[in-house]
Amino acid sequence: MLVLALDTSTPACAVALVELGALPVDPRRQADRAPQDQAPQDQAAAGRALFEWQALFERAVWDARRHGELLAPLVAEALAEAGIRPPDLAAVVVGAGPGPFTSLRVGMVTGAAFGAALGIPVHGVCSLDGIGTVTEGPVGVITDARRREVFWARYQDGTRVGEPGVGAPAAVVAQLRASGATRVTGPGVALYPEVFAEFGHSADRADRADRADGADGADGPLVPGSPAPAVLVRCVAADILGGRTPAPLVPLYLRRPDAAEPRPPKTVTVAG
């Protein structure tokens, strides 16, 4: 089963093509312990263990101002390199943010268009999960929200705790400290190194991979600390393989866009 994955929630315009496959289930192990008898964390671990996945293509270009220009060529490159035709795709996965209004909309609209044209499901996933679900221990994931703020979420052993948020870096540090986080990761950390200095920087999968240097226009298999689209696929692999209907795509903007509605024209009074 072939899945196209997109994320434009950060300055990285990222595309992946992932092959998913279900693993055979040993009926003897199922009989030992029914899923309804498992704790929620055990059920989640079991769900992740019942499939295999392979990234056939992963690439990103780091340029916050060119998502609309870069995304379609990256998708075409992914399909061509893997020898895949669009009708071969079984699903699309899109990073749903949080992220800036314009860039996030590029990825979500593109993903929705692919799904509508091909008649395949489109799954939206919190983009921060593309970083946080491959971490260990109590970790905060930080991305740039502009306006001197950051988007963030806390993860415990790869599972997100609560909903993502947005706030000033100092306020986010206080919340992470109170929640027991010991490390931070993500592209937003480097923007405020002194603020996040009390936390150790997480060196998980997102940082160990061989990636581009993050300069505008740089491209590579992945971009430092940005959400990995292939990991987003893993987050909803069980739903895709199970044929479950995805929820409607809802972007996680978390605040109003920078653009403001125009004000009505001023009334001009002519002196008599």
3D architecture notes:
- With 272 residues, the chain is an alpha/beta fold.
- 30% of the residues lie in helices and 27% in strands.
- The strands form two sheets. A six-stranded mixed sheet has the order 5-4-1-2-3-11, with helices on both faces. A five-stranded mixed sheet has the order 8-7-6-9-10.
- Residues 64-161 form the Gcp-like domain.
- This is tRNA N6-adenosine(37)-N6-threonylcarbamoyltransferase complex dimerization subunit TsaB.
- It holds the Pfam family TsaD.
- InterPro entries: ATPase_NBD, Gcp-like_dom, T6A_TsaB.
* CATH class label: Alpha Beta
| CATH level-two architecture | 2-Layer Sandwich
Largest sheet descriptor: 6 strands, mixed
The third-level CATH topology is Nucleotidyltransferase, domain 5
Between the first and last Cα atoms, what is the distance in angstroms? 77 Å
SSE string, helix = H, strand = E?
Answer: EEHHEHEHEHEEEHEEHEHH
* Share of β-strand residues: 25-35%
Going across the major beta sheet, what is the strand order?
Answer: 5-4-1-2-3-11
How would you concisely characterize the structure shown here?
With about 270 residues, the protein is α/β, with parallel strands linked by helices. About 30% of the residues lie in helices and about 25% in strands.
Lay out the secondary structure.
Layout: E1 2-7, E2 12-22, H1 27-32, H2 40-49, E3 51-62, H3 67-82, E4 89-95, H4 101-118, E5 122-125, H5 129-132, E6 138-146, E7 149-156, E8 159-167, H6 169-179, E9 183-185, E10 200-201, H7 205-208, E11 218-220, H8 229-235, H9 237-241
Parallel strand pairs: 1-4, 4-5, 6-9, 9-10
Antiparallel strand pairs: 1-2, 2-3, 3-11, 6-7, 7-8
Helix pairs in contact: 3-4
